[in-house]
Amino acid sequence: MSVRFYGKIHTADVGTLALTGLGVCLPIILLVSAFAALCASSGAPLASIAMGQRNHEKAEGILGSCTALLLCVSAVLTVVLSCFYTPILLAFGATEDALPYAQRYIAIYSLGTVLLDFCFGDPYWLPHPVVWIGKGISAAEKQLRKWFPETPSGLTAAGASRMTRLR
């Protein structure tokens, strides 16, 4: 979203060359976002398993490691993009005419890589929609267990089965 919004502002007065420069930058930006998603989601299953086992210390350690990995990868990407953005842009198909626009755009983006990756990498302080969905499911389950008896037909009516019953 922010890429499109900034791109529209940045390219409003300069035309097709600026749009071409922006188009060349988008695959690079997607790669940076993919690294953020990889670092953020790589430990999520392990942290979920640890939390399910009520081992919150282990889960916090896993998530802390993911955050540290995210910051390290973002720092490396920032350095690589800042130092080598011209050859990278040329490798991604920038023409000599569009190169100045792409260079300005990627230079601005690369300076914010660490901050953007940290924000997109699901930081602890930013509530994630999956947490809200999980809380909603838990609340609905508690209410449904009150309304329906713990019999096979009651569990079926409540949307649960004997196989998935947690005790």
Notes on the protein architecture:
The chain is built from eight helices and no strands. It has 167 residues and is an all-alpha fold. α3 runs antiparallel to α4 and α4 (56-91) packs antiparallel against α5 (99-111). Mean pLDDT is 77; it is low at 1-7.
Portion of residues in beta strands equals under 5%
Query: Shape from CA axes?
Result: elongated
> What order do the SSEs take from the amino end to the carboxyl end, as H and E?
HHHHHHHH
Radius of gyration: 23 Å
Notable traits:
single chain; 167 residues; mainly alpha; 8 helices; 0% strand
Write the topology of this structure.
Layout: H1 2-10, H2 16-42, H3 44-52, H4 56-91, H5 99-111, H6 113-120, H7 129-147, H8 152-158
